[in-house]
């Protein structure tokens, strides 16, 4: 356990990575710390048939081929672009891959409308430039440039949120693999060391905001991460992430499987309702992603822990669900009200149990917000 | 001691060490199954469908053994079709088809069973060997098509998965698929487990890696033992849902019974026979298994259903869709087969004259002596699958081709992508423990490197890979293997000069004036248009309507693409005319037939068959149907069709057919009877009532001539008391038409409605009724224009605007009938130019503002002059009628100015008179 609020994957799983590195006898591309098969094992977890002495837990849940395709892309000459809907685990996969490959997942550029070329290449320490002039000492390398110098993986989050000219700065980095610093007379080129690569993520809902140029697309391999539709996988993800959160908050609290089922079922119902809605007013503003489910559960757990009797109850979960999903008043509240009376109520009569409590809690929360 | 004793012991020990007794029983049971199958007197050849390894092993075994009798797991009634395979380009499917059901619920019909045959299959090799080698008998031993449906219904039998349709995937229609050697885990968990641990995505990929590749070059013993072992594994790990296994066991009993019967009857030596069946059946444990088994089994007699047989074209994608295989797997199997045949230097068996194949099989070597089986399973189970090494040349070819194909499909792919795909394929294969990238690795690599955020064209990279790795192959059925109807169609369409076997769309031009002989082709094309799916033959120019004839026609002909449809048409009759006649007759005698459908059938009979006798027969049925109808839902359709038919007969025949007369009189009485109910019935729409009244009024003169009485209609109208505004308007129109409600009063009523604010919201409904009334009283169209104009002018926006879309949709739905009348009347009423609009006063207001002076009874003119000159006749008529009239002095001519002009300038008139003289 570290004393960081959220430790990066390489810190959090340091011991596991060390162990994997110690037993890894596979061929490692460039300066990779683990072989591709070990990277896959780290991300997807081990199985008894792997014949390992200890169990490696699964950290990312999704199709095996996505992970394999991502890993081989990083071993090739191209950058990796993970594209998908919000909450599908793109950034988490990127972090895990970077941690497994080079033990450094923190060389991240966050793409925003305000991201400039300086954030990708380098900038200057102005006071030092005034004092000593432009030199390598007064240069502030960007995370990408640092990744190049060290031969590790750099990450670019939300690539399509940054403007086209900023995106285009990546083209030369991905092709020529060096950055020139024309302000300097000597030592004015930073070459990438073997092992350098870029993992970018892009939100498919942002398509059209700042479309990638064809030149940049060519330099990236696209791996599309779909929304998790399998209820079993989704349950796994929610359980895994929740346990992590509980550990982080140092909370001892059990999440009963029945409540998890209720949460998954509610989201599945609400997604089905959103899919059949005719207009935006008839569906919730929330994307109803897996990440959102985790958010609801986290909220309920924290609420139960600090304000309840340290037991997660269906009523609290319902309150958190309503609180998290009701963003617009009255549209979202009306949809939730309809859902509660049209779906939850009959279900509570039929199945009873926690659904009854869930019904009451939800009603109360809706009444409070209305 | 058994051959497999050592293995049995080894597996038993392993099970004891790692699991319990149940696992031990399964493992040793599997070895028992293999042992039993191999020690059977009749040699069992286990196969898996679409498996190149099975086909290769079959080629080798047939060459070695050269059996005299081959028993094949295929519906026994499909046997006679096999020789027709010679005339086809594979893949094609053997089809059994039944429409006349006897012994099955009628709702199941039509029943259809298809058994697709591909070149890369063991069964094709067996068929080709048996048919091409003299003295070899091929015996099909599986249950007949009839038995397939006896054990389960069509829904149950067709358990094909629901997948989005792909190109060429619908060639089998909704037939039930039969395939030899269905070998797949029967419960999802086992398949999931195998896929998960095999690190593959779908079953075809698993099969390819763990069975297909290791067995492709294996010797016969290994092949046979491994296949039976897999069959046994899936059989023993069956979830036990009962039905499916019970069906399979029934089939096994059937097959073994048939084989024993055949051996007994023919006296063949079992050592010269080969039984080709799915590996699942090879591991059978039914008591009838084996030639020495004595357990009886009674084969149920077939039902009375008449089955028809034929060949239909099939395709790789149709097979994949029907049997739930991964997209592209059959194509990949075909490509693997071609490569393996070349690499192993084998000469596969081929049917003589088979289209699309390269050469005939070489002569057979002398048969090899039988060798005792030895244990090959231990080796197979203890070592990882030996996989081929990297074939760089092949992979490079794929990479270059996929980039070329992607570029052609709109992707911005370049040589750099080809290099990336090559590298990624090798890296992916290495990650998956394969020395050589499989087609599936290559596909993943291509998707990774070429697919971006959007698919630019119709096909994505995954689909392009499937096309590249074999592509979909579509078979064709040769002319000689076609049913008589299809051959007849091909013969009759020959003058068009298009190749009907081609799968492209071809354009045929018919100049019927220049070449009257083409009229027969045109007629046939119209019939095919009626019978086949919409895009099989499609007219581009020319149409066929009652009383019209095209001078030139142009057709898009794609019969090659719809071979299945035309072959299935062949099951219904010998000629297209016969099928059409049957269909039309069936449509009018159907339980759900209505008068409208019968009239449509009459129209079609005249249009396509030109048979007056047949049309009369259908027409007589239409009269019966009309008289028996209790609803008037179809009244608009009936009215439209009977009007068209009457117009046609009046124009083309010396007199109306008897059924037409009966139809009009029956319709008059029928609609008069139903009119009062229809007016008040909420379920009957205003359009229907309008059409009824339209029938009654527009057919009135004919009905009167045929002996109907108008009083019936008058009474019916008097009995009608509608409540809904639209129907009230219709009733008013009807009363006006009958002379019971003058137009002035009708207008006054409308004005009252518009003046009453309480009724104004429902005024549009009245207008709707009046619009419908044009159907029955075209003379009322002027009034309808007036009402609509008033509605537009005086209705408040809140009433008018919501109603307008309804009016537009009504007029649009009935554009053919209502619009011409309305537009013509509106054109007459409204001014034609913009300036004239300013000074325009609506005719109805003009009438109200300045009533026209009464026309003078004593108008001047030649008629008046004649009458004045000869008053005797008029006086006599007046006296007869009892009129007291006085002769008035003739008025001076109204054309005074003209007379003055003519008198002033007589030259012109004189010149005209000279000219006319």
UniProtKB/TrEMBL annotation, chain A:
One of the record's GO molecular function terms: ATP binding
ATPase dynein-related AAA domain location: 79-220
A Pfam short name: AAA_5
SUPFAM superfamilies noted in UniProt: P-loop containing nucleoside triphosphate hydrolases
Gene3D superfamilies (UniProt xref): P-loop containing nucleotide triphosphate hydrolases
PANTHER family associated with the record: MAGNESIUM-CHELATASE SUBUNIT CHLD (PTHR42759:SF1), MOXR FAMILY PROTEIN (PTHR42759)
Protein name stated in the entry: AAA domain (Dynein-related subfamily)
Annotated source species: Nonomuraea pusilla
TrEMBL record, chain B:
Location of the region described as Disordered in the Swiss-Prot/TrEMBL record: 150-170, 355-383
InterPro entries: DUF5682 (IPR043737)
Composition bias type Pro residues, residue spans: 364-373
UniProt superkingdom: Bacteria
Protein name as catalogued: Uncharacterized protein
């Amino acid at each position: 356990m570290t004393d960081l609020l959220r430790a990066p994957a390489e810190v959090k799983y340091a011991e596991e990575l060390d162990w994997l590195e110690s037993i890894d006898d596979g061929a490692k591309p460039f300066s990779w710390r683990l072989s591709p098969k070990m990277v896959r094992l780290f991300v997807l977890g081990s199985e008894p048939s792997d014949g390992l002495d200890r169990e490696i837990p699964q950290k990312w849940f999704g199709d095996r081929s996505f992970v394999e395709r991502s890993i081989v892309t990083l071993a090739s000459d191209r950058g990796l672009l993970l594209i998908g809907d919000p909450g599908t685990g793109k950034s988490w996969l990127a972090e895990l891959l970077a941690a497994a490959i080079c033990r450094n997942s923190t060389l991240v550029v966050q793409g925003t409308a305000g991201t400039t070329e300086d954030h990708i290449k380098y900038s200057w320490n102005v006071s030092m430039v005034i004092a000593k002039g432009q030199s390598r000492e007064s240069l502030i390398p960007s995370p990408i440039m640092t990744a190049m110098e060290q031969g590790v993986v750099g990450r670019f989050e939300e690539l399509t949120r940054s403007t086209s000219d900023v995106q285009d700065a990546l083209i030369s980095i991905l092709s020529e693999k060096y950055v020139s610093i024309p302000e300097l007379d000597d030592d004015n080129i930073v070459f990438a060391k073997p092992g350098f690569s870029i993992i970018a993520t892009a939100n498919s809902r942002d398509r059209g905001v700042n479309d990638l140029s064809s030149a940049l697309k060519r330099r990236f391999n696209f791996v599309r991460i779909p929304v998790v539709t399998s209820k079993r996988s989704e349950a796994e993800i929610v359980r895994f992430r929740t346990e992590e959160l509980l550990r982080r908050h140092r909370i001892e609290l059990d999440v009963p499987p029945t409540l998890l089922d209720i949460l998954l079922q509610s989201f599945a119902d609400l997604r089905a309702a959103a899919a059949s809605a005719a207009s935006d007013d008839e569906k919730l503003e929330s994307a109803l992603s897996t990440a959102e489910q985790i958010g609801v559960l986290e909220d309920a757990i924290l609420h139960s822990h600090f304000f309840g009797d340290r037991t997660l109850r269906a009523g609290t979960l319902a309150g958190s669900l309503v609180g998290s999903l009701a963003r617009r008043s009255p549209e979202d509240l009306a949809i939730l009200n309809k859902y509660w009376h049209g779906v939850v109520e009959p279900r509570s009569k039929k199945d009873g149990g926690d659904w009854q409590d869930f019904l009451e809690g939800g009603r109360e929360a809706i009444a409070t917000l209305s | 001691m058994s051959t497999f004793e050592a293995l049995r012991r080894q597996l038993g020990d392993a099970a004891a060490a790692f699991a319990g007794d149940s696992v031990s029983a399964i493992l040793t049971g599997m070895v028992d199954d293999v042992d039993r199958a191999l020690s059977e007197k009749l040699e069992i050849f286990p196969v898996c469908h679409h498996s190149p390894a099975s086909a290769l092993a079959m080629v080798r075994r047939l060459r070695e053994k050269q059996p005299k009798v081959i028993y094949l797991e295929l519906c026994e009634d499909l046997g006679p079709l096999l020789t027709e395979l010679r005339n086809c380009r594979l893949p094609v499917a053997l089809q059994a088809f039944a429409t006349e059901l006897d012994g099955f619920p009628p709702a199941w019909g039509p029943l259809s069973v298809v058994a697709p045959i591909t070149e890369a299959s063991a069964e094709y090799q067996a068929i080709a060997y048996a048919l091409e080698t003299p003295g070899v008998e091929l015996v099909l031993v599986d249950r007949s098509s009839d038995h397939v449906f006896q054990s389960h219904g069509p829904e149950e039998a067709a358990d094909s998965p629901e997948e989005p349709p792909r190109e060429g995937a619908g060639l089998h229609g909704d037939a039930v698929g039969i395939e030899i050697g269905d070998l797949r885990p029967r419960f999802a968990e086992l398949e999931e487990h195998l896929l998960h641990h095999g690190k593959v995505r779908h079953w075809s990929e698993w099969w390819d890696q763990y069975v297909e590749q290791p067995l492709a070059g294996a010797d016969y013993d290994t092949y046979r033992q491994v296949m039976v072992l897999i069959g046994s594994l899936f059989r023993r790990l069956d979830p036990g849902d009962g039905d499916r296994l019970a069906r399979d066991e029934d089939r096994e009993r059937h097959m073994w019974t048939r084989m024993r019967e055949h051996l007994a009857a023919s006296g063949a030596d079992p050592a010269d026979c080969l039984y080709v069946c799915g590996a699942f059946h090879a591991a059978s444990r039914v008591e009838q298994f084996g030639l020495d088994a004595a357990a009886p089994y009674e084969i149920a007699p077939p039902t009375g259903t008449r089955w028809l047989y034929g060949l239909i074209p099939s395709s790789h994608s149709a097979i994949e869709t029907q049997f739930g295989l991964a997209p592209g797997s059959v194509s990949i199997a075909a490509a693997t087969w071609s490569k393996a045949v070349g690499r192993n230097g084998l000469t596969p068996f081929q049917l003589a004259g088979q289209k699309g194949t390269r050469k005939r099989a070489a002569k057979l070597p002398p048969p090899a002596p039988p060798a005792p089986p030895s244990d090959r399973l231990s080796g197979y189970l203890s070592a990882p699958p030996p996989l081929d090494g990297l074939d760089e040349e092949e992979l490079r070819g794929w990479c270059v081709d996929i980039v070329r194909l992607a570029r052609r499909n709109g992707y911005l792919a370049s040589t750099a992508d080809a290099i990336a795909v090559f590298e990624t394929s090798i890296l992916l294969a290495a990650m998956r423990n394969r020395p050589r990238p499989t087609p599936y690795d290559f596909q993943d690599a291509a998707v990774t490197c070429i697919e971006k955020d959007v698919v630019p064209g119709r096909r994505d990279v995954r689909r392009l890979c499937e096309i590249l790795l074999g592509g979909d192959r579509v078979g064709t059925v040769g002319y000689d293997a076609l049913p008589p109807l299809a051959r007849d169609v091909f013969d009759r369409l020959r003058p068009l000069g298009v190749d009907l076997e081609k799968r492209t769309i071809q354009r045929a031009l018919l100049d019927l004036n220049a070449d009257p002989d083409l009229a027969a082709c045109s007629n046939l094309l119209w019939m095919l248009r009626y019978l086949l799916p919409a895009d099989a033959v499609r007219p581009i120019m020319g149409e066929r309507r009652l009383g019209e004839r095209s001078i030139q026609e142009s057709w898009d002909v794609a019969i090659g693409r719809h071979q299945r449809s035309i072959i299935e048409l062949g099951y219904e009759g010998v000629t297209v005319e016969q099928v059409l006649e049957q269909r039309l007759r069936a449509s009018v005698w159907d339980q759900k037939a209505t008068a409208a459908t019968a009239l449509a059938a009459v129209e079609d009979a005249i249009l396509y068959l030109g048979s007056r006798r047949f049309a009369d027969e259908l027409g007589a049925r239409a009269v019966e149907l009309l008289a028996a109808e209790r609803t008037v839902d179809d009244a608009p359709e009936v009215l439209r069709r009977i009007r068209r038919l009457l117009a046609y007969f009046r124009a083309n025949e010396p007199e109306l057919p008897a059924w037409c007369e009966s139809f009009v009189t029956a319709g008059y009485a029928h609609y008069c009877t139903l009119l009062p109910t229809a007016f008040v019935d909420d379920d009957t729409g205003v359009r229907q009532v309008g059409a009824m009244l339209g029938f009654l009024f527009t057919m009135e003169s004919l009905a009167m001539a045929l002996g109907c009485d108008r009083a019936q209609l008058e009474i019916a109208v008097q009995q009608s008391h509608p409540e809904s505004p639209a129907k009230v308007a219709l009733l008013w129109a009807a009363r006006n038409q009958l002379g019971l409600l003058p137009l002035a009063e009708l207008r006054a009523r409308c004005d009252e409605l518009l003046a009453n604010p309480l009724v104004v919201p429902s005024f549009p409904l009245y207008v709707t009724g009046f619009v419908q009334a044009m159907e029955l009283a075209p003379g009322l169209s002027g009034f309808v224009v007036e009402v609509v104009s008033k509605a537009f002018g005086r209705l408040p926006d809140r009433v008018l605007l919501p109603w307008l879309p309804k009016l537009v949709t009504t007029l649009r739905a009935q554009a053919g009938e209502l619009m011409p009348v309305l537009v013509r009347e509106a054109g007459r009423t409204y001014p034609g130019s913009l300036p004239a609009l300013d000074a325009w006063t609506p005719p109805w207001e003009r009438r109200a503002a300045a009533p026209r002076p009464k026309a003078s009874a004593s108008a001047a003119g030649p008629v008046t002059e004649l009458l004045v000159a000869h008053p005797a006749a008029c006086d006599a008529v007046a006296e007869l009628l009892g009129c007291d009239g006085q002769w008035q002095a003739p008025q001076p001519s109204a054309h005074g100015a003209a007379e003055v002009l003519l008198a002033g300038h007589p030259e012109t008139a004189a010149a005209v008179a000279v000219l006319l003289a």
